[in-house]
């Protein structure tokens, strides 16, 4: 029996993602991996996989897959219509597919990214220890296209499911804690500026970074017009380019940057940012060091 699924349609974007390839910044390689990591972990548990198995990150739905053999799928992330051969199957629960059956994702009612796990996990060749696609460097598998056949690994065992998994409801207004530094001194009282400013997520945002639209952050007078030598940056870094409008780096970020980083987002809130659609209102709140 063939253990594979065939991609029939991708929607706006569909990428293979696992938990990423952290620890390679010294090679200039970003961590990558699922932007909404808890949703991928849950999808894998529902499908009977190890939490770090590779699945599919689908942006705004439209993904269609045909099972080439018997398998179990699970779809997580925001609430989204899921059908099998045109019949409602539901998300956030294991769904069995027979060979030839087609599972399809509609458009999520809110949020941005859904995750599809298939029993056995997607077993494309790993690069630097991960099967994740890095959209900035091109490391990992190419973005999925109709006609791609994705091999599956051997199932670990029957899916065990969860008692009750209500889909999250991503908000259209987010307040995100930020630990100030290392270059907060380049800005005039950034905590006070955060308290006054509200930004909106730009349509130009992607897996590299969440670009924010709105009023600029004002630099301290002694740093006006100054340039910064490139230095290391991490996932969640809030970099402020010359126009003063912050960019929050996500999993496919460059490993160095030449603009000051005013702070770093609390890692626990990165999944919320992964689901922030263009137009979502963002406020930053200075967080005291632990």
UniProtKB/TrEMBL annotation:
<feature type="domain" description="Carboxyltransferase">
    <location>
        <begin position="26"/>
        <end position="290"/>
    </location>
</feature>
<keyword id="KW-0547">Nucleotide-binding</keyword>
<keyword id="KW-0067">ATP-binding</keyword>
<keyword id="KW-0378">Hydrolase</keyword>
<dbReference type="Pfam" id="PF02626">
    <property type="entry name" value="CT_A_B"/>
</dbReference>
<dbReference type="InterPro" id="IPR003778">
    <property type="entry name" value="CT_A_B"/>
</dbReference>
<dbReference type="InterPro" id="IPR052708">
    <property type="entry name" value="PxpC"/>
</dbReference>
<protein>
    <submittedName>
        <fullName>Biotin-dependent carboxyltransferase family protein</fullName>
    </submittedName>
</protein>
<dbReference type="InterPro" id="IPR029000">
    <property type="entry name" value="Cyclophilin-like_dom_sf"/>
</dbReference>
């Amino acid at each position: 029996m063939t253990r594979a699924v065939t991609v029939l349609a991708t929607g706006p974007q569909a990428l293979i993602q696992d938990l990423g390839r952290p620890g390679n910044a010294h090679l200039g390689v970003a961590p990558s991996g699922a932007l909404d990591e808890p949703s991928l972990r849950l999808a894998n548990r529902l499908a009977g996989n190890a939490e770090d198995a590779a699945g599919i990150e689908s942006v705004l739905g439209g993904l269609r897959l045909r099972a080439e053999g018997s398998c179990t799928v699970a779809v997580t992330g925001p609430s989204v219509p899921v059908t099998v051969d045109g019949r409602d199957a539901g998300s956030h629960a294991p769904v069995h597919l027979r060979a030839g059956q087609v599972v399809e994702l509609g458009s999520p009612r809110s949020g941005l990214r859904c995750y599809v796990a298939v029993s056995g996990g997607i077993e494309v060749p790993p690069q630097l220890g991960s099967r994740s696609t890095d959209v900035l460097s091109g490391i990992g598998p190419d973005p999925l296209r109709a006609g791609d056949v994705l091999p599956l690994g051997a199932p670990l065992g029957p899916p065990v499911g969860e008692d009750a998994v209500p889909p999250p409801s991503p908000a259209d207004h987010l307040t995100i804690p930020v630990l100030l530094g290392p270059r907060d001194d380049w800005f005039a009282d950034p905590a006070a500026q955060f308290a006054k400013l509200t930004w909106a997520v730009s349509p130009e945002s992607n897996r590299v970074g969440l670009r924010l639209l709105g009023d600029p952050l004002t630099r301290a007078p002694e740093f006006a017009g100054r340039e910064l030598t490139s230095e290391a940056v991490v996932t969640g870094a809030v970099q402020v380019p010359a126009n003063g409008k912050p960019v929050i780096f996500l999993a496919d970020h460059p490993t160095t940057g030449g603009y000051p980083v005013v702070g770093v987002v609390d890692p626990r809130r990165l999944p919320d940012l992964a689901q922030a659609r263009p137009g979502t209102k963002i406020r930053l709140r200075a967080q005291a060091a632990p």
